[in-house]
Model the fold of this input.
Amino acid sequence: MDKINIKNLEIFCNHGLYEEENALGQKFLVSASLILDTRKAGITDSIDVSVNYASVCNFINTYMKAHTFRLLEAAAEHLALALFAHFTPLEEITLEIKKPWAPIGLSLDYVSVEITRKWHTAYIALGSNMGDKLSYLENAVEAIKTDVNCRLVKISDFVITEPYGPVEQDEFLNGCLMIRTLYSPNELLAFLQSLEAKANRTREIHWGPRTLDLDILLFDDLVMDSDTLVIPHPEMHKRSFVLTPLSQIAPNAIHPLYNVRIKDIVPED
Done:
């Protein structure tokens, strides 16, 4: 990927822990590294297929002046999210916000906070076998689609499948999504669990019936194992109700543990 750099854009605005900082304002310097594909712009010499750095600078200036944050961390985080929302070609952003007049009672050049945020690719399995199954799945898809930290890329057909595990229960309706997300894996998990909670999902019975089940299958090419989250999903390679809809939208996605394409591990009927 290519990069457009903006260095030390000077802005007078109102951010800080102290009331007088928010009331009087002070100078900040904002630097941004914008990661995107500039090849088409380079070939065509057209700004319409790139990101106009003048527009970015004006956007940063307007945003920083229109909002007040106590912490540089918060200013950087919210500014990054706003830039992603406004300039859709961006794939990754590194932001540094410098504060030359930091009120610490000592001489220094500046203090700064620097963050890097990027779009990740994740695959999500959806399932329901209670109540209005289709509505539960459709409501979850809509919530994901409208969240500012997510972009819906592809959605599979919903398929009826037999229940998995030893508990006797109704048939499932299952599907898969491909999304782009700014969430970290644990943040994405928390977001999905909040959607399950809104659908009155309970976890009293392992492999039991549920109104809504949302599982992270793959997240970029990440392999992780924590107390709360395992990626890739540890059971996905065994489950046809996951692999069949997943192969519909991502047949060539690679399972990072087994180094095989999804379409090559779908069980034959």
